[in-house]
Amino acid sequence: MVFVGRDAELAALGERYAHAREGSSSTVLLGGEAGVGKTRLITEFAAPLAGEAWLLSGDCPQVGGNGLAFAPFTAMLRRLLREIGVAGFLRLLPRGEPGELGRLLPLLGRPAGDGDPALTQARLFEEFLTLFENLAEERPLVIVAEDAHWSDRSSRELLDFLIRNQQAAAAFLLVVSYRSDHLHRTHPLRPVLAEWDRRPWTTRMDLGRLGRGEVVRQLRGLLGGEPAPAVIEDVFRRSEGNPLFVEALSARAGAPVPASIRDLLITPLDSLPRETRRVVHAAAVGGARIGHALLRTVTGLDDAALTDALRPAVSANLLLIEEEVYAFRHTLIQEVLHDDVLPGERGHLHARYAEALETDPELAPLGRAAYESALHWHAAKRHPARTLAAARRAAAEAAASLAHAEHLHLLLRVLELWDQAPDPATSKADVLDEAIRAAIAAGENSTAVQLVETALSAGADPARAGWLIAHRGELRHLLGVPGDLDDLREAARLTPGADPARATVLNLLANRLLTVPLEEEGRVAAREALEAARAAGDARAEVIATVNLTYARARAGDLDAQLPHLVNAQATALRIGDQGALLHAYRCEADVLQGTGRYAEAAEAARQGLAAATRAGLARTAGPVHAGNLAEALIALGRWDEAAEIVEHALQVTPTPSLSAYLMVLAGTIALARGDLGAAEHATAHARDVFTRGTSYAQDHLLLVRLEVDLRKAQGRTADAAHLVEEALNSGGTSPRYLWPVIEAGASLPVPGLPGTAAALPVIGPVQEAHRLACTAETGQPDLWPGVAAAWRDLRQPYPQALALLRAAEHAAEAGDRAAASSHLTAAAREAGRLRAEPLNTRIERLARLARIPLVAREETGLAEGAGFGLTPRERDVLRLLADGRTNRQIAEELFISVKTAGAHVSNILAKLGVRSRVQAATAAHRHELI
């Protein structure tokens, strides 16, 4: 096809590639109708980059009306493996091991065991991104996924993961093409495209038809000369500017033209030998690409006869030879030919393909014989027993490849066929149970609930009913549907004491109770879970139960006695290799340490959780949870710049909606304290929207309320602030840890019932005592403000300490005690200056003017002086890693910040030290004892 009329689009792709070379990732969503030239545009763009950049491409093939799981990415991996070999490929992977990618490339070696489906798929996605990052660090990387309108759900989820995490990764360009005319109203790609298009680094490029002048240029190239005016008029009118149709019409100049423009694409077939037509139609039923050996088996021809039959089709430009397969020149040609086959013959050919793939799995070009065979049997129709058996085998293959959505889809097909042809090797109940697990792994929670209901209605013994109802309880919670706790309680009642599943069911119940929170009932459930786990010898359940029980007891004020149990649980999780349990233990440790005001220790536990997530290959999926814990601890400690960097990076990897809302609350907290009311408003609106649309925990909601109350007060909207506090008090939230900050924020407001709630609310630990003391000082005992400041000082929380010092200074000034007022105000100014808390600084300076108290020049942001070269604490962290020989990316991974942020820190360090290289910086760091 002659290439014309795409100069602007080609330039735009080149611009995005230049951005990737300069370190900025981007995605291009390339849409257009069939035949408009999407693939040709990509080919023209990529051609000059050969040898300069990594070019990884794969398409989403359609087989039997369905897409193949991970097909475009499997194709990319196979081509890369051929190019660089096994050793070169392993060099690009974490620890030089195949990991979960071995499931898609068996040549590398499959990983041992299956593990938690959610974690293994998350690890697979992270390994893909790590592979792409490592390639991008060697030379520019361009990834192309074509025909996304045929993509399977697993491929769409992987694309979504890559796009969401692009800004936090090494720079690369991702191009995703799709047929815009294929996207009907309910097409699964439509909402995904809309979500991708909202990303600032994503560009949507709609490839339109050619104009008249461009059609003339294309005709000149095709015909080798100036076309006659009548030809121009006829071709432009009939093609409507579609380049593929222009090409087809140009070949028929002066000859009769079929009534249908689609039929025009296959008119060259009419003049070919009968055997060629038969073979080409058989190939079209197989898909857009088909291997020689597979086509030979299906047609029954030997090699020589098949080659003779195909040669005219290749000469007529209907088929192309790509590596070891035959490919239709355009997928639209394959579709028209497929539809041209009579239904009976089409079904017969699909059955032939299925039988061939079952007999010799090596005939499947992507190594997915079971899956392709199942698709062909389904398309063949009228073979229920063989279709069911093939779907069962393909479901196992999909599960092994971590294609959870396809696993579920195939099991649902098995269930649909069950009454026609039951599988004697298993029971329908077993298939239902497997389908429930697959639906949960795929995130199809509503489908999972429906399957649970089906299984329960069919009848189940108490143990199985308990298992099913426990799943329904978890699913109802995720869906925000009432009845989740009732289900979990009923599941615990039904599951017999001797059943190995009892510990798991009780752990689910304890987890849910402790997050409501219903502390006492949660402790009882956790204790019973621990007993059941020990009785069953279930090490994993014992770790989870131990963590839950120690977590519950620590929250009740017994922290020191419980920490050793948490440490032991972490050691056990490490020993048995259970990464999910280990991450749960670190998360709970950081949380309880924060709740008792031990923020430095909480930060260290969160860092250990981040390190464990990174070692497990889950830095981007499990990491943001621990990053949130770390950021919250750092905010309390007054290390706001570090916290802001961590939150920014965690949001770049786009965690779950509820977690992103929590992170936005943390970002809004810093923004408000520094006077950026617009950013704080944006953060609260985002979090409120998430919590309104989905399920949220009480503590997350109360964290948001505290921020909203402070924001409304800063905006002078005290009535709105009071209403928010009143709503929180009436919402049934009873967690003292999260309710005390809201009560303190509302103490200066006219909130009905607040004094009574405060009087009745328990006080557990020094943090809650500090809040209670501040509330008392605010509501009538201002002489307590120095004590409040001392309480926050002892907890190493500089911001509330500075606020309390300001209030103490106000009270002292009103009482005429200038010395005390000056002392409190000076101390408050020192802390506020270090934090760059501008609204607080403004209030301090206003009081100083009114009370005529001189203030020394405020301290800046905590910069080290003298021999410290003005390095911030964060820059010292970076310098320590730099001196250890770490790259910017390794520094970013260690500190959970973006690579760009790490690079900015390194540049600042070099400038402050007055050196030009990393080696010189490391030398200076040791010489001046900066690390």
Automatic annotation (TrEMBL):
CDD domains recorded: LuxR_C_like
UniProt-listed Gene3D superfamilies: Tetratricopeptide repeat domain (1.25.40.10), Winged helix-like DNA-binding domain superfamily/Winged helix DNA-binding domain (1.10.10.10)
SMART domains the record matches: HTH_LUXR
A Pfam family the protein falls into: AAA_16
Keywords attached to this entry: ATP-binding, DNA-binding, Nucleotide-binding
GO molecular function: adenylate cyclase activity; ATP binding; DNA binding
The keyword Protein biosynthesis is annotated on this UniProt entry: no
GO biological process: regulation of DNA-templated transcription
Classification via PANTHER family: TESTICULAR SOLUBLE ADENYLYL CYCLASE, TRANSCRIPTIONAL ACTIVATOR DOMAIN
Protein name, as recorded: DNA-binding CsgD family transcriptional regulator
Source species: Nonomuraea jabiensis
